[in-house]
Amino acid sequence: MTHSTVNDVTARIIGRSRKTRGDYMERMGRARDHGVARAHLGCSNFAHATAGMPADVKEAMTVGSAPNLGIVTAFNDMLSAHQPFERFPALIRQAADEVGATAQVAGGVPAMCDGVTQGEPGMELSLFSRDVIALSASVALSHNCFDAAVFLGMCDKIAPGLVIAAAAFGHIPCVFLPAGPMPSGLPNDRKAETRQKFAAGEIDRAALMRAEMASYHSPGICTFYGTANTNQMLMEVMGLHLPGASFANPGQDIRDGLTMEGAKRVLALTAQGDDYTPTCEILSERAFVNGIVGLHATGGSTNLAIHLIAMARAAGVILTWEDISDLSHVTPLIAKVYPNGMRDVNHFYAAGGLQYVIGELLSAGLMQDDVRTVAGDGLARYTQEPKVIGGEIVWQEGAREGIDEGILRRVDNPFQPTGGLTQLSGNLGTAVIKSSAVKPEHRMIEAPARIFHTQEAVKAAFKAGELNGDMICVLRFQGPQANGMPELHALTPILGLLQGRGHKVALVTDGRMSGASGKIPAAIHLTPEAKSGGAIARLRDGDIVRLDVEAGTLSTTADLNSRDPVEADLSDNETGIGRELFQPFRAAVGSAAQGASIFFGEDVA
């Protein structure tokens, strides 16, 4: 039986989305009824589409009715997670050929690495890159030559951008094909300790570099449970991956096998076959609720509080932070993966991974089985894990007993009774916090505010010895309208060091901290943002701010109504590293609470 809160939240999402979802499904129906795309192309158009293909493939595409598969890839070999995608098109073409179909690379999309741009000007393009990716993937598929699509992209903004594009082409089936995380490197506790020692001036840059290179050392997703790995959880829980596809390492036989099986499976779901499963039917209200529950149960990335809303809206589904927060209250945290714990996603996978998590949540009525997936009807199929037996991929029932309780727990014996993300509200606006990473003794802080407008100003104050007491670090003008809403990880070692010295410390910002949000309580995504005149723009140094995770509040005792909002000189954010080209994005973007997207306005109800 489904939990009453899950039922209630699902019902209100369905009710709130009735018009937008109905309009979306009607559009998808018209596109479906238009028939196989290639059949409507003129001879010259079709000749252009096939001119570069081998003769036998060209023949099959010309005279046959077998489906043609479009590959949208985020391959580049600067981004470790996407380097393995270089060889995926060959595997996909081979798989298509084995079932009598064809496949083409439809196009590429940009894929930036937040780890490279962290603390750099390029980070101000990171969130906007999600919508650029959606646009780029749409351009690739707009040739209208494809009966199905596979999407190769995993990291922070890439997977959400591809989902938005998949929703726009929701009349055709799609499968997401991941490449998996890199093998484990330097233990996470040693990496965090090294960073704090460098921040304190106890070790030199050479020692820091050795530690970082030992942490990020090979192809694959970074092994901590940040946004990239949270995306993989989400794609699987929402039925866009094959069961068990998320966390096998690159280069393994099982990874290649899953890639080929995914290509074959999506070709079986086209309108030409008997099992037509368009993506629009997978991206349902229930699927998004399952994704939110998975986010909470695994302590996933705070970035998904933004991306889920944008992805859902692309499919006509209207989510709110209240929905996310209400589901958090009833979803126990049953996985403890770094930064919530010390072990990484490879340990999570080995311990039973998503198959165990999905099984537990289905049994407890916290996930809903009544969904469509690329594997067929019903989420229960995702309790099975893939194995390579006799050179073939077969699925067997996943582990339900003998689990390592240091990383996975039963629903009735969780790491904590509520989920990983919490909404905070009060006279400062609305924010979210990754509560799963914050120890209980740090979940309520009342302290004077220290106001900053840049990360560099915080660092300078720390180096000058000015940050030596309890404080709420308020970093404003970091929202999407101000500078694209960059992540603020450069502050984590500093604030962690202060907390370690016994000071009560928290961060309040209209910016982001993402999936690596750690042990410092951080009220992030605060809306309205400072650039739009939000309450955070009225705060002054010394104002008492109270952050209370358990009460779900974020407030100040200051009389904000008597003050005008402060304005900031943002000219340094407007040019350089391509930022001048993104001015239209900063002008058009909606709030974080509405998905921080250029596609969807503030009034979506």
Report on the structure:
With 605 residues, the chain is of the alpha/beta class. The protein folds into 2 domains: 4-183 and 218-397, no CATH class; 421-573, IlvD/EDD C-terminal domain-like (Glucose Oxidase, domain 1). It has 22 helices and 16 strands. It has helices at residues 4-16, 18-33, 43-50, 55-63, 88-98, 114-117, 126-141, 158-168, 188-199, 205-215, 227-237, 253-267, 279-282, 285-298, 304-314, 321-330, 345-351, 353-363, 455-463, 480-483, 492-500, 583-588, and strands at 68-73, 102-108, 148-152, 174-176, 372-373, 376-377, 384-389, 392-397, 421-426, 429-434, 444-452, 471-475, 505-509, 522-527, 544-548, 553-556. The strands form 4 sheets. Strands 9-10-14-13-12-11-15-16 form an 8-stranded mixed beta sheet. Strands 2-1-3-4 form a 4-stranded parallel beta sheet, sandwiched between helices. Strands 5-6 form a two-stranded antiparallel sheet. β11, α19 (455-463) and β12 (471-475) form a beta-alpha-beta unit. α5 crosses α12 (253-267) and α8 (158-168) packs parallel to α15. The longest helix is centred in the N-terminal third of the chain and has 16 residues, at 18-33. The protein is globular and about 75 Å long.
